[in-house]
Amino acid sequence: MKRLIALMLLAMFSLGTLSACNTVKGAGQDVQKAGEKVEEAADKTGGTENP
Question: d(Cα 31, Cα 9) in Å, to the nearest integer?
Fold first, then answer.
């Protein structure tokens, strides 16, 4: 019985970890898209580039 409980807890922990990875990956993609938009806006305004 103890082994079954331990396996269930391990499975729940694993699923939680995997879903968190997907969430973080999605957030990273959102930040990347926002950065691309900022970069495009800077290009349109003719900002100076670093030498």
Answer: 33
